[in-house]
Design brief:
Shape: globular
CATH superfamily of the largest domain: Zn peptidases
CATH topology of the largest domain: Aminopeptidase
Order of helices and strands: HHHEEEEHEHEEEEHHHHHEEEHEHEEEH
Number of strands: 16
Helix content: 25-40%
CATH architecture of the largest domain: 3-Layer(aba) Sandwich
Bound molecules: zinc ion
Radius of gyration: 24 Å
Structural class: alpha/beta
Number of domains: 2
Strand content: 15-25%
Largest sheet: 8 strands, mixed
Distance between the termini: 25 Å
Number of helices: 13
Length: about 450
């Protein structure tokens, strides 16, 4: 097959030009922008629209079904990504406008969604389009699903909840699911493939204190907001306990050889070295999040005016739950450590989804293809700190084979997800397309 980077860059550029921005308020989803994206996909991928069944589910989710020959005994393969992007942030800080799709003289494509994750949608669609151009039919059914509100953690009206409810009604299950994630990067000259096998859970809580209020010129010793501030300090001083879960143990062991100094030594056997390791983890935010359920206050509200004492003060916290810790565990922890004048309620949240396995047909296939494309590659299974839409599909995947793996070659010249100046090195686009081509070709026969 001939992989045409220029064409892939044009396709990604076309998608980036359409501002499919998520809105925290589901009522404000700009459905017309998503429709414009759908219309663009029709022109960019005519064969997909000719040969696959397409459905629009919910407000703007896309579900494509590619019927296989039925020769394979494997459950269907699902390729995922999300159509939505985060807002552009500070417009004046962008080198090139975020929705212009500018490609500079070095082949860097600038814009919102270039790495998170219209690039994944583009790679999956180009792979299928190329296979169709060759007259290829897979031996196994293949689905493509693209949600539209991943960036607001789904929330009420989560696109993927609507899609998975529908698929469940139809009795459809998957043998493997691939969603956005990391790819293959270089560490000390060795290619390293990072495959995310699990993700943390998520929770927003509201903490509140009710008080008499009154004139700010005659305050009590501690008012509602002051008490709440103290409660947050207590919460920070008393986090959930540190613990090791299996995916993190696997990750540390795999990373030991790329990790310098004492930490590299400790990673070789995290369980045996836990006493020393946990001291280091607790002091390092990037390690701390791997070994405990975190909670941090992010939003606060007092009275509406500077000279009025708050009658009701509230603070929103954001928590990320380790696999194994539940929302109930977290609530019990809050109640145990907080002063009793503080109220707390769950705003929204979910437990961490099922941990995927590394001894499955699907995982072996990911490794085989990656190895062929990057000889000598090392594999690091890991955990996503944030969340992805793939969690919704875990219940539909009895093989426990939901992987967050974008598969393309990661370039040091790409970056900026969720920041200003998001950009991608277009030289890397072909590697992701090639990966998905091979995945579609080989999945049916994998065992
Ligand atoms: Zn994303």
């Amino acid at each position: 097959m001939k992989y045409d980077n220029k064409l892939f860059a044009e396709h990604l550029q076309g998608m980036v030009k359409i501002p499919t921005v998520s809105s925290a308020d589901p009522e404000k989803t700009r459905v017309d922008d998503f429709k414009a994206l759908h219309a663009y996909l029709e022109t960019a991928y005519p064969l997909i629209h000719k040969h696959l069944t397409k459905e629009v589910i919910g407000k703007a989710a896309l579900l494509f079904h590619w019927k296989g020959t039925g020769k394979s005994k494997n459950l269907p393969l699902l390729l995922m990504a999300h159509q939505d992007v985060v807002p552009e942030g500070d417009l004046s800080a962008w080198k090139y406008p975020p929705f212009e799709g500018h490609i500079d003289e070095e082949g860097i494509l600038w814009g919102r969604g270039t790495t998170d994750c219209k690039n994944v949608m583009q790679a999956e669609l180009d792979a299928v389009e190329m296979l169709l151009a060759e007259g290829y039919t897979p031996d196994c059914d293949i689905y493509l699903a693209f949600g539209y509100n991943e960036e607001i953690m789904g929330g009420p009206g989560a696109a993927c909840q609507i899609i998975t409810d529908e698929l469940k009604n139809r009795g459809i299950q998957f043998g493997m699911v691939i969603d956005e994630g990391a790819g293959v990067s270089e560490k000390n000259g060795v290619p390293v493939a990072t495959i995310c096998t699990c993700e943390k859970g998520y929770a927003d809580h509201e903490f509140y204190v009710d008080d008499k209020g009154g004139h700010a010129a005659m305050p009590p010793e501690h008012n509602a907001l002051g008490k709440l501030g103290h409660a947050m300090w207590v919460l920070e001083e008393n986090p959930m306990p540190l613990k090791l879960c299996q995916p993190v143990i696997d990750m540390m062991k795999a990373q030991a050889e790329f990790t310098e100094g004492r930490l590299g030594e400790l990673f070789k056997d995290p369980e045996a070295n836990w006493d020393e390791l946990k001291e280091i983890c607790a002091k390092t935010p990037s390690l701390n999040t791997l070994v405990r359920t975190t909670t941090t206050p992010t939003m606060a509200k007092g009275s509406d005016q500077a000279n009025i004492l708050p009658e009701h003060a509230s603070i929103i916290t954001n928590s990320r739950l380790l696999p194994g810790d539940t929302l109930e565990d977290l609530m019990a922890h809050f109640k145990a450590v907080l002063p009793d004048y503080v109220g707390v309620r769950l705003v929204k949240g979910h437990n961490a989804p099922t941990i995927s396995v590394t001894d499955s047909v699907g995982y072996r296939l990911l490794c085989k293809i990656t190895e062929d494309m990057h000889p000598g590659v090392k594999f690091v299974p890991t955990m996503v700190f944030g969340g992805t839409d793939s969690r919704y599909y875990c219940d539909l995947t009895p093989t426990k084979s939901v992987y967050r793996y974008s598969a393309g070659t990661a370039s040091p010249r790409s970056g900026g997800a969720h920041q200003v100046n998001e950009h991608i090195d277009t030289a890397t686009l072909a590697s992701a397309v090639e990966f998905f081509v091979r995945l579609c070709q080989e999945y049916g026969a994998a065992e």
